[in-house]
Amino acid sequence: MSTFTAPDGTRLAYHLDGEGPPLVCLPGGPMRASSYLGDLGGLTAHRRLVRLDLRGTGESDLPRDPASYRCDRLVDDVEALRVHLGVERMDLLGHSAGANLALLYAVRHPERVARLLLVTPSVMAVGIEITPEDRLAAAGEREGEPWFADACTALEEVTQGRGTPERWEAITPFWYRRWDETAQALQAADAREKNQEAIPVFFGEGAFDPEATRTALAGLTVPVLLITGEVDVAAPPRAMTELAGLFSKAETVVQAKGAHHPWVDDPAHFVGTVDEFLG
Asked: Quick check: is 145 in a domain?
């Protein structure tokens, strides 16, 4: 673990692993420690991963001001990390909710981004609506799974605003291609690796200006790669197609039978796709 200081004085931690040019990785959750990203399916054989623990998560300190958890305010932390690393331009990866932060950083500091990777991204920063039908259509591709019946019923309840903590728990197999020991261990760690108090602040009022962000993304000239999962209920294919259309040029790769953690679902495909894009 290494540390640096954010503009407001908060000590932030990041983790280095692997060889090659750096790839700065922003975790999702939201507000989950970066440890769940691991080596991104073996990507460390090709790139030096720089996993940032967002303020108040992992080994980073709690900030004095809880309002600083808001997504747009975290952009300054990412820029401080770039300066600390001493790089003029950086390759930037955002997973899930972390993709919102990656997008806001790219909009505010386009000259500091070399390449942008969005992995099964959340789309709140750009105001794309994901409908219950979008999620249920993706879920329907999993019908043969032994856990499907209860999980699908729970998903219907959740998308209708009737999700209890127990029903949210019931849909977790959808986040992974295989609901095996590896997936179950990752999911079991989810709650304890998140800063629960920070989550509502991350998405709080004022965090996003979708219209302005859309306009700025249309003029972004850096290479963009979207990696999506064919059966991902969190980032379903229709919404991902709409997101890709916001860029003047973006490459989209759909991982066959992939869900929300493509480096877990098919490590070889994920690493090969990212390595080819990064060159």
From this structure: no
